[in-house]
Specification:
alpha+beta; four-stranded mixed β-sheet; 10 strands; about 20% helix; about 40% strand
Length: about 130
């Protein structure tokens, strides 16, 4: 989210720097300034981190809007995260190229990783511990 708080921005910056240190990695990573097309909402969003493999495919007539992300990362701030698991994730699932969606908690050592399998089903894996 553009204009986010310090913790989410720090997490995004560390992820971006890690990708820069792996020059042979096929991913191209962009930060929250990149617009991504979401077919379900017929509009665009600004994920915290977006990655793609290969050539960027822009939305027709809008060269600044990406249509083919492979990975989207959202850093959850202190507010409720239901939006990221509900409506926002529902929209992200409508992006044909998207294979991975990560939600990183800025409050707990927790990563939620949704991966799309070959049958178009999404599998959730969590890493870290959720505290109550």
């Amino acid at each position: 989210m553009s204009g986010g708080s310090f913790s989410p921005n720090t997490i995004c910056q560390h992820d971006h720097r890690a990708r820069q240190r792996a020059p042979r990695h096929p991913l191209r990573v962009v930060t929250s300034d990149q617009k991504v097309w979401v077919p379900r909402k017929a509009g665009f969003v600004y994920p915290d981190v977006t990655a793609l493999c290969g050539r960027a495919e822009p939305y027709p007539g809008a060269p600044d809007v990406l249509t083919n992300p492979l990975l989207i990362i959202e850093v959850l701030s202190e507010g409720p995260s239901l939006h990221f698991r509900g409506e926002k994730f529902e929209g992200y699932r409508s992006i044909p190229s998207l294979r991975h969606y990560l939600m990183l908690s800025s409050r707990h050592p927790l990563v939620e990783h949704y991966a799309r399998d070959d049958d178009d089903a999404w599998l959730l894996r969590t890493y870290g511990a959720r505290t109550q």
